[in-house]
Inverse folding.
């Protein structure tokens, strides 16, 4: 029986997350979610199960409401780096979810690295 696109995505997402757990060493996880219209990112402490900081294209303060392109992804990456630094977080593990590390996801990661996050 053939698997649906959603089931294949879920398998990729869990495979990436399980691999990250091996190398996390107590570092928080920088999790990316991408939809057709928006991009959001969270820094999550998996030990306590809490979101430490987040950024999204749904926030009016960033000026990219409803945009889903590389420029918006770069602004979100810079914003999450700034917020993570303010929360005292310098090192994270990058959880790309089931998405390819290409295009918008790569632009977000590069901007977060330029902002000072290490992963």
């Amino acid at each position: 029986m053939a698997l649906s696109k959603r089931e294949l995505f879920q398998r990729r997402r869990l495979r990436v997350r399980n691999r990250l757990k091996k190398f996390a060493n107590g570092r928080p996880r920088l999790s990316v979610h991408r939809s057709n219209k928006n991009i959001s990112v969270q820094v999550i402490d998996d030990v306590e199960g809490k979101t430490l900081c987040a950024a999204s294209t749904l926030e009016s303060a960033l000026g990219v409401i409803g945009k889903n392109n590389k420029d918006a992804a770069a602004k979100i990456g810079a914003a999450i780096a700034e917020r993570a630094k303010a929360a005292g977080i310098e090192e994270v593990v990058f959880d790309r979810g089931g998405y390819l590390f290409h295009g918008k996801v790569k632009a977000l990661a590069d901007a977060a690295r330029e902002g000072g996050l290490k992963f």
